[in-house]
Every structure is written in C-alpha cells, then in structure tokens.
Amino acid sequence: MNNKQKDLTLYNAHFIDGLVKAGVESAVISPGSRSTPMALLLAEHPDIKVYVQIDERSAAFFALGLAKASGKPTALLCTSGTAAANYLPAVAEAKNARIPLIVLTSDRPHELREVGAPQSIDQNRLYGTHAKWFAEMALPDAEEHMLRYVRITAAKAVYIAKQSPAGPVHLNFPFREPLLPQYDGLFERLEIEDLPAIHLSEGMRMLPKQEIEVLAAIFKEKEKGLIVCGEQQSEGFEKAVVELAEKLGYPILADPLSGLRSGEAHSHLIIDSYDAFLRNEKIKQEASFDIVLRFGAMPVSKALTQFIGRHDAIVHCVVDSGGGWREPIGVATHMLAADESAFCQALSARLNEQRDRSSWLENWMHINQAAKTIMQSVGEHAELDEGKLFYEVLQRLPDHSALFVGNSMPIRDLDSFFFTDERRIRLLANRGANGIDGLVSSALGAAAVTSPLYLIVGDLSLFHDLNGLLAAKLNGINITVIVINNNGGGIFSYLPQAGEQKHFELLFGTPADLDFSHAAKLYGGDYERVTDLASLDNSMAKAAKGDGLLIIEAITDRAKNVVAHRELWEKVSQEMNKLTAGEGFWK
Amino acid sequence: MNNKQKDLTLYNAHFIDGLVKAGVESAVISPGSRSTPMALLLAEHPDIKVYVQIDERSAAFFALGLAKASGKPTALLCTSGTAAANYLPAVAEAKNARIPLIVLTSDRPHELREVGAPQSIDQNRLYGTHAKWFAEMALPDAEEHMLRYVRITAAKAVYIAKQSPAGPVHLNFPFREPLLPQYDGLFERLEIEDLPAIHLSEGMRMLPKQEIEVLAAIFKEKEKGLIVCGEQQSEGFEKAVVELAEKLGYPILADPLSGLRSGEAHSHLIIDSYDAFLRNEKIKQEASFDIVLRFGAMPVSKALTQFIGRHDAIVHCVVDSGGGWREPIGVATHMLAADESAFCQALSARLNEQRDRSSWLENWMHINQAAKTIMQSVGEHAELDEGKLFYEVLQRLPDHSALFVGNSMPIRDLDSFFFTDERRIRLLANRGANGIDGLVSSALGAAAVTSPLYLIVGDLSLFHDLNGLLAAKLNGINITVIVINNNGGGIFSYLPQAGEQKHFELLFGTPADLDFSHAAKLYGGDYERVTDLASLDNSMAKAAKGDGLLIIEAITDRAKNVVAHRELWEKVSQEMNKLTAGEGFWK
C-alpha cells in the first residue's frame, strides 16, 4: 500500500467504523466512480448492511423509509454532480419528518471544482436549510490525528442527526484519484472490535415540576377538553396518553399515524371517526371546548383542523419533544418543548383522582360510534369503489404487519377507514412534506427492516417513484404494492378546481393511462388485478406468501369516488343532526 | 370577480404576459394545487405552449432540453413542497450547461410556513448557488404599481436567465387560498397585444483592438498551434473558426458537440479522431505544440485533455463569451472573456496572409485520416457490438435530424464514431454536469421543437429517467429511443474499478436485468429489438415514420465491449507507431 492508498483506505475505513460504532447499521449506495473508496469499504465492513439503488432520488427515499421503520440513522452514498442533487426531495422530507439520515456525497477535490471539470457541481451546502448540519470534509489522510478527526466526525454526524428533532446531516468528501482503497480483509486487520467508540446519549426534555402543577390545576378545572394526537415518536407514549386521558376524562382524537388506533393502546377513549362527523356544521358549531392538548404532528384531517381553529380554547397546549412550532392553525396558547410520554406521566401524577365520566366524554364516544358504524357500511357497497377497497384491504391485513400509505387520497382514506383495531398494524407515511414522490422507495426501505409490509398508493404516486421498484429486485425485498388506479389526480376532484371544465384534465386530472402489469414485468414482480372481493382475497393470499414484489392493481373511477365518499359523509352528517337534535346534547 | 380573485387573476396574468413579451414561448407544468392560478393562466395565454409532465424531476429536464434545442428561455411550474425539490438536478445541469430556465415555484403564504402546515418546505433559495437569481415574490395584488412590478419582474427574470452565461432563475410565489383565478377569455379582455413590453438586449463581448493585435503578433510567430473546440453557442462560430484555422494553418480538434463535425462547417482542417490517436504514447510525447486556442466547454475526450495537459504551451488561450473559468487542466496562460465568433473574426482580420500549409498541419490531417480509417473499420465487425451499433446507427440518421446522446458511454462512442459529415445532424447532450439523470426528458424536450430526434442511451440512463417517457404520450411528441442495453454500468469496465472482483457487480456493474419492451408497453410506445443489420434497418425505417414513441433495444455485452474498443485503439496505436516512426515526422 503506497502512502496515497493508505491515506484513502484508512481515512475512509475509520470514518465508516466510526459510523458503525455510533449506531449506523445500513447504507444505501448508488453506483458511481468518485464514491469508490467509501462504497468498497462500506461493502467490506462486517457490521453494516449495504443496499443498492441506481436512481439516487429513490435511494434517498429508501434510506428514509429504512431509518423511519428502524428508528436508526441510515447512511446514503453517491457520486459527485447531479447524483447528489437527486437526494434533495428525500432530504427535505427527512428534515420535516425528523428522520436521521447521514448523507455522504463524494466530490472532486478542490483543484477540480468550478473549472469546467466533468461531473462537478457546487456541492457545498447543497441541501441548504434542509440539512441539519453540513461539513466539508478534509482530504483523506492517515495521520493519527486525522483518523481521530474522521472517527469523531462520524460520531458527531450521528449525534446531530439523531438529536431531537432528528434529521438529515450532510458530509461532502473530496476524493482525489486514484480512488481504489485496499479493502480486502482490512477490517480484520484493523481489529475494529478494539477501536474506540464515543458513547452518545440525549436527555429527555422535562418541564419543571412547578409548571406541571400550574397546568394540572388548569386541567382539573376544565371538563370540556380534547386530546389530539398526530404522528410522534416518543417511547411509551400510547400507554401514557391513554392513562392521562382516563384521568382527565377527555376523548383522544387519534390520527392514524399516532399509533393509537391499533394494537395495545386500544382504548374506548380513542375517537377514530372524527374526520367524518366533524364535517357536520352543527357539531362544528356546538361542540365547543375549553381546552386542547395536542401531541405530535398536525393530523391529516382538514375537518379536525378547521374544527379546532374555529373555537378559541382558553388553553391550547402543543407538546413536542422536538421543540418544533407545529401549529399551523394559529390558536396555541402554550408551546411546550417536552417529551410527550414524560409530560403525560408527570401530568397524570399531579391529577390525583380520575374524573367521573362526563356527558362531554359520553357524547364524543357516542357520536364517534354512530359515525363509525356508517363509515363501516362502506363494506356493504355493491361496487368495489375506493372506500370499500381501502376498507376491505385493511380488514385483510395480518397481525404484526406494516402498512405504508401514499399521500393525497390514501392517507385520507386511511383516516376514514382505519378504525381502532386490536391487531398490531404499524401505519407509516411520509407526512413531513406530504409529497407524492419517493413513496415506493420509502416503503421498500421500511420493508427491508419490517415484514410483511403493504404499500397502498395511487397511480400518480406509483408512477412518480416507479424506479423505486428496482430496489425490491436488487436487494431481495418482499413487498406488496396495492395501487388504486383512478387514472390521474383523484384528489383534485375534491377541490374547488374540480369545478373548472376548461383545462381540468390537462392540468389536474392528468390521466396517464398506465397499466401497471407492464411495470411488474419490467421489475420482475408478480401482478394481480382486483375487480371484486374474490379476486382481492386471492391477491391478499398471494401477498401473504411474501415472495418478492407483488403489484395488486384496482381500477377505480375518480368521479364516482367523490360521489361515494360524499354520500357516506352526508349520511354521517344526517345522523349527527339527528343525534344532536335539540339544545340539550352538548350541555 | 371579487377583490381577492381580481388580485390573483390580474397579478398572475400580467406576470405571464410579461414572460411572453420577454420571449418565453413554452411552459412545462406539473400538476398541483398551490400552483393553480399560474397553471390555469399559462394554459389560457394564447402565445404560450403548455407541456405537462407529472414527475417534476423529468419536467425540469424536459424544459432544459426544450430550452437547449430552441435557444429560448423556458418556464417551469410546480406546486409547493418536495415537488420543487425535484427540480434541483435539472437546475444544477442548467447552471453548468448555461440553459435559460425560468423556474416558478408556488408556495404557501408566509403565515403557513414552518408551522407544520402540509406540503410546505423552506423554498427560499432552494437551489442555492445553482440558480443565477432568486426572488421571493410579493403576494398577488392588482394595484397598478404591483402589476407593473410583476411585469417588470417577468422581464427581469428572462433578462438575467438569458445573459451570458445563461442559466436558471428561480421565482417563488406565495399564493393564499382561494386559488381559482377567473381566466376564461381573460387575455382577450386584457387586450394583451397593447400591453407594454420591455426591449431586452445584450451586447457582445469584444476584446480591445490593441489586445487582438498583440495576440495576432504571437499567433503569427507560432506554426505549431492547435485549435480545440468544445460545445459552444456563439452564432456563426463554425464558419468563423474554420476561416481563422485556415489563416493560421492549425488543425481544429473538434468535439462532436462543437457543431463542427457535421453540416456546413465541414472542412479538411477538422480533426475528428484525436481521441483514438492521442492514446498513442509516441504521439503524446512527440507532437509538442507552441500554442493552443480553446473555445467552448472542455471536450469529452480524456486522451485530448491529458495530451494538452502534458505540454506547457507558450500560449494557451481559453476564449469564452460567458467569461467562465473552463479550465480544468491548469495550463491556461490567457483567459479571454469574449464572444467566440467575434474573436475569431477579429483575429482573422489581423492576420493578413494565409500561412502556407505546413508539415505540422499535414501531419495532423494525415494521422487523423489513418486513425479514422481504422475506427471506421468497426463497420466490418462481424458482431453488432456497441461500437459497430453506434457507427451503423449514425450512418442511418437522416439529414436535418437531431441526435441526443447519453452520458457515460454514448457520448464517448459518439466521439469515437461520429466522423465529419455533410449531413446536418444536430448533436445534443447534457454536458453541464454529465449526469446519467434526466436524459430521456431532455431529449423529449428537444424533440418538442426539433424533429426527427433520436436518443441513444445506455440501460442505466434509460432506467434513471424512465418516467420521462410519459411526456411523449401526454404531449404527443415523436421520439426514437435507442437503448444500448449492456445490463449495467458499462463505463466501469474501462476504469481501474474493473480490476476489483470483490463487490464489483454489487457496486459498479449493478445489473438491473431490464427488458425495455415492458417500458414501451407501459408508456404506449412501439418497440423493436435489434440483433443484426437487417433488424437495425427495419427499426430505423420504422423510426423514420416518426409516430410517437419508439424504443429500439440492442443487447450488448460489457466485457466484450471493452475488448472490442481496446482492440480498435490498439490498432490505431500501432498504425501511429508506424506512421510516426523515425525522428523526422514531427520536425
């Protein structure tokens, strides 16, 4: 090994071992030349699993899904130039969704930058405000203090990425030719088990006792309270929030991504059909509350957001362990940067007795049950429309499975048709920026660490990240992709744009006329077309075998779909009018 | 029209009309909600052609290709969030390749930013240093001075984007709901033909006479000179540089993208096989020169770059109308920010007489002819290998056609096998950052304004931008995509990485096993498999009919391909040794 090769080899090896010691278990690599030293050493390290995806945009979303499902920081590596630019959509999503990504871009050395050299763009702070941290790395150097620097930087990158709110960090590595390290058997020779590691830990944010006491006193006084839960990652939260709700006698309006609608959290306090009944004008007007306690991201339901925004509660607390300003409604009175579980426990402890069950709580449970019954009647529809399809697929998911849902319509249908359930079904989505991009890859990344995994997406989302499917084949991952193909942008039929005849199909409907059986063939997957419950049963049985990629396609109709949904909501609304008739209901 | 709708409508309408008056003829739109007012008004404006592509990454490359082929600034529009982030790869390419793009992103209004509202990321300076100019636009406002502001900003955006070096500009538009403008018939009512326009013009950069005289005196003294031409956009350059070369008696080493190898420029001074014979050690050592005059981007040939870098010429001029530092070799003595054509004309005018034909020039023409003859013998290969395929396809291109080539291997094969030709074939590629991304879309964008257009790409490039194919169907564009499918990253077989058995296929070869007949079916295209000259003839005849999308796939072998190329180069090298034997050749 000459000196240059030694510099290249040891510098990269210690960096990678530094990542591993800091808890990185997986790396997603896209092929390229400039990234060669890092790629070969990642493939060589015994304690890191390497995944390959050729399209860097998909690769980055794959890493995001993997990090999301595993809760562990995931590394990403690409070559120089526009390759690195392709990471931006996933980096932006990771920043908003708080996913720890270690983005490693290789770059030309300084003398080849901005002088017209090939495959070279300005990679300095390439992701702008969307990376939590950026560092331009030193050139490879095997001096002892430089190996220490690069190990420390690896640990620091993980430390920053994981700290609440978690997010992506970006390290840019200049590499000078020649690019080949001497990797074979290197990590054994380095005796990596004896190499030093830095212990990384982060304390939990806890509010001072006095403040909890003040809050407890307020909560004790208020009977008409609501707990609202969105997506969050605090450990033990489900149990803690249910305990708190029981003491307070408040209903929990639980977004599907809160984790509260399924599995152990299962509680009669959980309200799962609010999106349907909060569309009712009478309820919106009359169910006025005194206090709101919000955890996690804003729920997907627009009806809920509008309902909360309509009433100025005396107290409206937003609790977020990440200290983010997750408050698009503009009504918060308390912004509390505190761990969600710890907050619930501390508050519960200050509330000595459980409140007697109030009519307030009974009302919420009552109308929720009534609305739910109507929403569940979607199963009785003669036609396998989008609502029924969603409902029936959900019925057929096995215990301990994971479901990744697309944005736009699927996440809304999940909200409508996923009711509290004892099965432990992990619900995942990309709700950082709610893009229709990268969903296939995010689901596949999740499927790499949690199985079985089902993805439900619309046709435009599947198209947008069709390249993502290649990762199933390249990395031997099992996934079932259920595509609801309504030939275009279904959500626009719900928006005011739907009223515009002129230009509507050109700009919003955008029918792409895609038959995904060809996509299945292209990516070596199986394909099933679903037209009725019998074929759905067959398809889901095939999915249960979990053998590589399976695409299940159902053809639906955008126009009929809006009508069917609106009919259900209208039924719910009429039932609500009946139930809450008279002046006594909310008293 | 209420006041809000009036603000939204007139503000966007005047902006769009401002773009049109400044010379924007096309806009590429991706569907979305936030961008509704701008999208509807773009579709409504009588003088702007709207193209639709659902995938924003592909949309941006489509706009880039369209702007590249038309020479006109092209607008791009998307919704908020990661949609906008998907533009970055094309924006980075446009910056490096000097393509004028008007990037319009719609955004949430200020009160919905960074508060956890959906589909919202920080779009401020989203493209960092990769946009020439960024502006955060005012909220829609129909006050007269605000309509003037928005018209002026449209003109300014085009003015900046087009100025040499051209590039992308980014305007971020906050839109508040409701988002529907009153568009139907609006532009007639506005009587846009009478609305004011700002005349935009840019002067040419000309060196002072005295400096030209000093340079002319130097050039007169030096017999052993080289003119090197890469991709450039100066009008009339081909003619001007050939005239100058004739006066100086210098060979012109012309990159295929210089435009000099085909059509009218056709001259015996043009050297087209330097990439083959400059691999010969003897020539590299002995053909030493005194002076180099370079125009445009650095040519693709690494052999040429290394050859130039080896000799310190007394004078090494880099002429660039954009004033860029296009000098990765580190040997320039003169950096001249001047229009290429004007420079050639001015210098020619100062060189009174034409130099007698020197042995220097004769030698270059002689070895070029010898090398070319050997390279052309690829046509005699029994097997339809990559070299032969490339050569045979090129033979079959019709006059006045355009050829877009992929990066990695295709651009290098173009360099090897596209010889000076009287046919006017327009050669296009994305050489700003040389990415393998966005090539299908760039070619389709070009095909929207120049026809017939052929794209030659490798399988990984076609895979990377497979989504791009949708634009052919959505916008009714004809294109022939010729995919050389060697099942993976063919270029790595030429690099030192090829020596690494371990991890090679995983990290570099990356065989994806794609059969693109399925892609053709998915996107409603025709498909032909080429295995010999007869099937190539048939396929090219089908292509000549120009009916939508046609994919022509040829299966090749990565390993054999390297061997075949190296055999050709070795033959050339041996011939060069023979030709230049003895000490007298370069005297």
UniProtKB/TrEMBL annotation, chains A, B:
This protein's record includes keyword Metal-binding: yes
Pathway: Quinol/quinone metabolism; 1,4-dihydroxy-2-naphthoate biosynthesis; 1,4-dihydroxy-2-naphthoate from chorismate: step 2/7; Quinol/quinone metabolism; menaquinone biosynthesis
Gene3D superfamilies membership: 3.40.50.970, TPP-binding domain
Enzyme class: transferase
GO molecular function per UniProt: 2-succinyl-5-enolpyruvyl-6-hydroxy-3-cyclohexene-1-carboxylic-acid synthase activity; magnesium ion binding; manganese ion binding; thiamine pyrophosphate binding
Pfam families reported in the protein's UniProt record: TPP_enzyme_C, TPP_enzyme_M_2, TPP_enzyme_N
EC number: 2.2.1.9
Cofactor binding, note field: Binds 1 thiamine pyrophosphate per subunit.
Keywords annotated in UniProt: Magnesium, Manganese, Menaquinone biosynthesis, Metal-binding, Thiamine pyrophosphate, Transferase
InterPro entries linked: DHS-like_NAD/FAD-binding_dom, MenaQ_synth_MenD, MenD_middle, THDP-binding, Thiamin_PyroP_enz_TPP-bd_dom, TPP_enzyme_TPP-bd
Catalytic reactions of this protein: isochorismate + 2-oxoglutarate + H(+) = 5-enolpyruvoyl-6-hydroxy-2-succinyl-cyclohex-3-ene-1-carboxylate + CO2
Keyword tRNA processing recorded: no
Gene Ontology biological process terms, A to Z: menaquinone biosynthetic process
Cofactor (UniProt): Mg(2+); Mn(2+); thiamine diphosphate
CDD domains: TPP_PYR_MenD, TPP_SHCHC_synthase
Thiamine pyrophosphate enzyme TPP-binding domain boundaries: 440-553
Ranges for domain Thiamine pyrophosphate enzyme N-terminal TPP-binding: 14-124
Record domain Menaquinone biosynthesis protein MenD middle: where: 221-405
Family: Belongs to the TPP enzyme family. MenD subfamily.
Subunit structure: Homodimer.
Reported function: Catalyzes the thiamine diphosphate-dependent decarboxylation of 2-oxoglutarate and the subsequent addition of the resulting succinic semialdehyde-thiamine pyrophosphate anion to isochorismate to yield 2-succinyl-5-enolpyruvyl-6-hydroxy-3-cyclohexene-1-carboxylate (SEPHCHC).
Descriptive protein name: 2-succinyl-5-enolpyruvyl-6-hydroxy-3-cyclohexene-1-carboxylate synthase
Species name: Pseudobacillus wudalianchiensis
Gene: menD
